[in-house]
Amino acid sequence: MRFASEAIEAVVLPEVGARLHRLRAFGHDILRTPEDHRQHVRDPFFWGSYVMAPWCGRIEAGKSTLGWRRISLESNFPDGSAIHGQVYARPWHRRPDGSLQITAGGDGWPWVYEVRLRVEAVHRSLHVDLTVTNRSADPMPAGLGIHPWFRRPLSVAIRGAAVHPLNTATQPDAQPEPVRGALDLREIGEMADDLDAAWTDLAEPPVELRWPQAGIRATMRTSPPVGYVVAASPSEVDAIAVEPETHAPQGLRRLVRAEPGALAMLDPGQGLDLRVELAFERLGGAAV
Question: 29-45: per-residue pLDDT in tens?
Fold first, then answer.
């Protein structure tokens, strides 16, 4: 599926997680896009941009309970965690209104849920609208986010005053700490290699991105405003992930322990909504 405006072109693959395979602004590739679409299946976590639901980031694999429901999740990542939810690589189906939808759960994640996605290219902006809806008969924990890999060279600002510095940890601290050193990204600049953290206490706009060689700037905003932006800069990958998320790392454990930043609880039939807007402009204000 292709979505385009005078400045934006987006290509979505319904058959592989409804993920953004390609995003171009003013003719320049913005995402880390493989030449072969099948690479998204072989290596689903490090290409394009994909939906995270019904949780974001890592939660603990294995067996746990919430109320009378028993959760039994297999690890899908080398660190032993259950990462990025369940819908990032499964086939979605197209709806008559042009949106995409998937129904999942009822397995190791014992609740059944539905996720809908709508993508629009509007002038110089890309809009990604997401909803996860509880289709079970009792309350379900839920989170939403997207996971774009933005191509380097790239300058980044994440205007968070506090941070969970170890997003990769199985037991991150309940409370964030004030940003400092390489984790203080409130001013635009290069992001140090091999960070993987979750920023919170976000200012407006929460994220700014610049591609100096392409002469492009983007701002990322969400509606409603998310509480967290996760970013990862692995030195072996030619891209940086900047991920708006509705909850903090280890959101399920936080829910069980009544810690801040937990997954939301959705009543039967209730939905959790998230809109992510990427607004692009030419650096220096040049016309298209």
Answer: 999 999 998 999 999 99
pLDDT, tens digit (0-9, with 9 covering 90-100), for 78-94: 999 999 999 999 999 99
**Boundaries of every domain in the chain:** 2-285
Number of H helices, E strands in the chain: 2, 23
Residues 6+ apart with CB under 8 A from 133: 113, 114, 115, 116, 266, 269, 270, 271, 272
**Residue 53: helix, strand or coil by DSSP?**
strand
pLDDT of residue 286: 46
Q: What are the beta bridge partners of residue 241?
A: 149, 232
CATH for 2-285, options being 1.20.58.2190, 3.10.400.10, 3.40.50.300, 2.70.98.10: 2.70.98.10
Say if residues 25 and 41 touch (Cβ distance below 8 Å): no
The structure's pTM equals 0.95
